[in-house]
Amino acid sequence: MKISRGEKWFHYTNNIVLGLFAILCFLPFIYVLAQSFSSHRAVASGEVLFWPIEFHTAAYAELFKDDYFLHSFLISIGRTVIGTLINIALTCLLAYPLSKAYIKGRGVILMGIVFTMLFNGGMIPTYLVVRATGLLDTIWALILPTAISAFNVMIMKTFFQSVPNELEESARIDGCSNLGILIRIVVPLSMPAIATISLFHAVAHWNAYFDAVLYIMDRDLYPVQVYLRELIQFDQTDINLKDDWESQLIATETLKAAALLVSTLPILMVYPFLQKYFVKGALIGSVKG
């Protein structure tokens, strides 16, 4: 198919604009990276822009020696892994029966789910529920209140509706139960959508901090985002920057930059493995049906 000159110029312009936008999005990461490898003097004098000045790695060394940071990092990893698995399991178990038109009461349940997308009890009623169920000061207070996302249930329901009924009928003839059909047939065929909502849930769990501030009083259960909040907003850290000459090279801003980068790495490492499913899963789950 021949492309006109106007279409060529549009493609060139579009690529240039998107490229510039990508660079603008990437520049803050470069700045934080440069700051994390720079000395106290360079950071304090404002010399650091997009390249480290007086390169050193003392901030990372001190950060990884901080037991509080390492413990909060592990808490966030555990919350993200366990929480995402629970999210996916419950979402699939709820979305699959709702995708079947023959289920009685399906419309009422769908109406209730959509209602929760528009209205909710708010922060105080949610806190009272968490307290009444005995979840305060436990890791489950960070997982169970957000175990179901109505938006993701609707995406999975729409995706499940696109699975051919003939496959399920043949499996049922072979003696497969409804749960077996879901696990052995429907879930493998729905991996693009599952990978997409897994990414949604994982990012939400990893970035969440406000629920930990509300429900957790035990400092040993704080996730890494609360650690970053204390460090960035209140300059609170267990790291002593005055004991020796090497520690005095580290500015508080340098330590903040190092902590931000290390805390961002897990999601950056996961995303490339799920990116190929992301667009396909979001589009099919939102459009089909």
From TrEMBL:
Domain ABC transmembrane type-1: from-to ranges: 69-271
Subcellular location: Cell membrane
Major location category of this protein: membrane
Transmembrane segments: 12-34, 73-96, 108-127, 139-160, 181-204, 255-274
Keyword Transmembrane helix in record: yes
CDD domains xrefs: TM_PBP2
Name of this protein: Carbohydrate ABC transporter permease
Organism of this sequence: Paenibacillus chungangensis
